[in-house]
TrEMBL record:
<keyword id="KW-0472">Membrane</keyword>
<feature type="transmembrane region" description="Helical">
    <location>
        <begin position="169"/>
        <end position="193"/>
    </location>
</feature>
<feature type="transmembrane region" description="Helical">
    <location>
        <begin position="36"/>
        <end position="62"/>
    </location>
</feature>
<dbReference type="Pfam" id="PF06055">
    <property type="entry name" value="ExoD"/>
</dbReference>
<feature type="transmembrane region" description="Helical">
    <location>
        <begin position="140"/>
        <end position="157"/>
    </location>
</feature>
<keyword id="KW-1133">Transmembrane helix</keyword>
<dbReference type="InterPro" id="IPR010331">
    <property type="entry name" value="ExoD"/>
</dbReference>
<keyword id="KW-0812">Transmembrane</keyword>
<protein>
    <recommendedName>
        <fullName>Exopolysaccharide biosynthesis protein</fullName>
    </recommendedName>
</protein>
Amino acid sequence: MAPTHTSQLLEELVAQAPDGPVDLEWLLSNLDKRSFGLLLLLLGLLVIIPGVATIATLALLFPAVEMMLGRSAPAFPRFVSKRQFDFKRFKRFTVFVRPMLQAIERISRPRWDARRDVIDRLVGLVVFLLAFSAGWPLPLVNVIPGMVVVLIAIAYLQEDGLLLTVAMAAALICLLGLGWTLWASFGAVMSWIGL
């Protein structure tokens, strides 16, 4: 049986959301058995949105570490899980991204060739590095890692090994690009101060 489409899971979650602010504890309580994948999708989208990107980037580190450790479900420290954010902005953003998700889903299908625990740990490691890179205080540096996390989450939820390979390649390019930017910036600063 094919997995439920990611856009449908997202639509169902948004429909359940209250009108006011929500916190990560509410999100976790409303996720289905594929909580890691859907949580990565939600946080990846939030990383892109101005105003909530900082807390979303911090929050993304926790499920990434838990996936690397082989945990079966995500959890957050209380200071992160009780931090509220305005879900209305997220609801508006999902309307914008839904056509993109549906376009990916039309060409995506289950192609899972590796053990689930291996995939979990690999995805966790890559998402951790992307979240770390999204936290650098550079203009718009969060947008591309956030988009790559969303692509990884879709591949993970759709159980599409080919799409996951593409997403991992995009993650590698993203991380190499950030590494080069930081190295060049460091070199420019050292040159400017005469070292």
